[in-house]
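Data availability (excerpt). The following record was deposited with the supplementary files.
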Amino acid sequence: MAGFDAFEVIPAVDMQDGEVVQLVQGERGTGRRYGDPAEAARRWIDEGARTLHLVDLDGAFEGERRNAPAIEAILGTVGEDAEIQLGGGIRSAGDAIDLLERGVDRVILGTAAVEDPEIVGEISDEYERSVTVSLDAKDGEVVVSGWTEGTGLDPADAAERYEGLGAGAILFTNVDVEGRLEGVRTEPVRRIAEAVSIPVIASGGVASVEDVRALKEAGAAAVVVGTALYEGRFTLAEAAEAVR
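Predicted structure:
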């Protein structure tokens, strides 16, 4: 499930209190709101997205999936039209398998994978290559629990380990630049892409189509874009054209 036939630009649909929101560096209270998640999902599909990146931010912060109704609405509205990857608050293999059975194509595990690495294999045994491990890094260190706790892990080393445990892809978010619209840092992405053979999805800091192109050149198989798309810095079509 985790392969990308060609480089993809993946719109983010981050949800808090049932609405689309984009946070700055993951800090609560910094976000701008962009309305109904299902409407946003439909908009991105209509503009050409092949994959959607859904995040339950309440789940990420509090460990409980509070945006389940919005996620169900998205699956019902566009689930047949795009690949759906979902993260935030997935804390057990049972949670993940339930979501995969409901129509989610890939589950994104962050905190759960760090706390219990074997969960990756447990889910992959049921749904091969369905687990994307989320490695969020601040100052070069993997962080968890809504980017609030350091782990001491190096992102490239961690990526290699999770590939061995059965992960189908790595989602790498550079928290240092996330949501700031100030550009990307390609070196950490390059390091991870060179460490693994599974797809690396890059996230954080994209402000222009040049940033999208730079991440592709660094070895990413796809890039997640949130704020820049919602704020109209460029369109999905412009980004796709830049890397064609």
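Summary of structural features: DSSP finds eleven helices and twelve strands in the chain.
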